[in-house]
């Protein structure tokens, strides 16, 4: 397991774990992201936080947003993306669970 205080290393570890399930590395909004087998982004690394598309009004999104410091992803400022949560480095031990949930979340 990687050092959980290094967001890039933790993200790389998750990308490697999900690769056998068809996740590929790409870019979205200038950040590294993971795409599913259909080419849709489901997770990324933005400013040291894991960003996951969990789906609006889902239990996974509600759980993520209950974490201290978590918030909706707002890449341009003023227009949060209601399906996406930013999960802070302080919760890196849970990043793999949320990335997994994002991978299987309905699109």
Draw up the topology in text.
Layout: H1 7-18, E1 24-28, E2 31-35, E3 41-46, E4 49-53, H2 59-65, E5 71-73, E6 81-87, H3 95-104
Antiparallel strand pairs: 1-2, 2-3, 3-4, 4-6, 5-6
Helix pairs in contact: 1-3
Rg over CA atoms, rounded to whole Å, is: 12 Å
Compute the number of strand runs: 6
Low-confidence runs of at least 5 consecutive residues: none
The pLDDT mean sits at: 94
Strand order of the largest sheet: 1-2-3-4-6-5
Kindly name the structural category. Answer: alpha+beta
- Helical content stands at 25-40%
Characterize the main sheet.
6 strands, antiparallel
Shape: globular
Bin the strand percentage: 25-35%
Give the termini distance in whole angstroms.
30 Å
Describe this structure in words.
This protein is α+β, with helices and mostly antiparallel strands. Helices cover 27% and strands 29% of the residues. The chain contains three helices and six strands, in the order αββββαββα. A six-stranded antiparallel sheet has the order 1-2-3-4-6-5.
What are its keywords?
alpha+beta; single chain; six-stranded antiparallel sheet; 107 residues; globular; 3 helices
